[in-house]
Specification:
Chain A has about 60 residues and is mainly α. Chain A is built from two helices and no strands. Helices cover about 45% and strands about 20% of the residues of chain B. In chain B, helix 4 packs antiparallel against helix 5. The chains are: A mainly alpha (about 60), B alpha+beta (about 170).
């Protein structure tokens, strides 16, 4: 892992810690907002690829 | 979401359920950053009928339907959330339920699994999302090492934990 990636990871972990330290009522309110936002996103589904990657499918060497 | 906890507290007071505690993703949110989820897992001990040994979720559903809540697949919708009542299926979950702690959510008391039990359950279940959650518990620094290791030993999870650390935490 490069130094830049390590810094990014460390910042993400720190941000998670800050969010974890919020009062639980606030975190549950944020969850409700996330679920509502996710419903809006999932209402507009992108088209599926013709050859979708599936679990257990082997990738042929080129 | 505190309204859900108020409903469940009333169910406990009315004797429809025994001791309960919040687990799953919502339980984890008590200790971690918000994690997205679609349902609320409520682990419950079920009172048995006098002279009977059969455990059934029937009385829970009858009670909630009588109070105007609607079923949706295996869930009951309370305040817009899909709530699932789950009897403990393993000794680890039984212990988590027995040792769950009280927490205040905007003035409503509820019970939630400890961080150490939630992480141990994730380790035991072992799906990719559970592994991710264990990493988050470790990164958040909310697990008491002594308590966590004692749980792992009691439930024969030490070897699994060692492999998990090698795969995901040793860098």
């Amino acid at each position: 892992m490069t130094d830049l990636m390590k810094q990014l990871t460390a910042r993400k972990v720190e941000r998670r810690r800050q969010l974890a330290a919020l009062p639980v009522g606030e975190k549950l309110r944020m969850l409700a907002e996330m679920v509502a936002a996710a419903k809006v996103i999932s209402a507009t589904r992108p088209p599926k690829p013709v050859n979708a990657v599936r679990l257990g499918r082997r990738v042929r060497a080129i | 979401m505190e309204k859900i906890f108020a409903v469940i507290n009333q169910m406990e007071a009315d004797g429809v359920i025994g001791r309960y505690a919040i687990g799953g993703a919502v339980g984890a949110i008590f200790w971690l950053e918000p994690i997205t989820t679609k349902d609320v897992d409520v682990f419950v001990t079920l009172p048995t009928a006098p002279g009977g040994t059969l455990l059934t979720l029937g009385p829970i559903y009858q009670y909630l339907l009588a109070h105007g809540f609607k079923p949706e697949e295996q869930f009951i919708v309370i305040e817009g959330w899909a709530v699932e009542f789950v009897p403990p299926g393993t000794p680890l979950v039984e212990e988590a339920l027995a040792q769950a702690v009280k927490r205040d959510v905007n003035g409503v008391l509820t019970r939630v699994f400890t961080a150490e039990h939630l992480a141990a359950i994730c380790l035991q279940v072992g799906r990719p999302k559970d592994h991710d959650r264990v990493i988050r518990f470790v990164e958040a620094g909310v697990l008491d090492a002594e308590v966590f290791e004692a749980i792992l030993q009691r439930h024969s999870l030490t070897e699994k934990w060692n492999k998990f650390q090698q795969a995901y935490l040793d860098s």
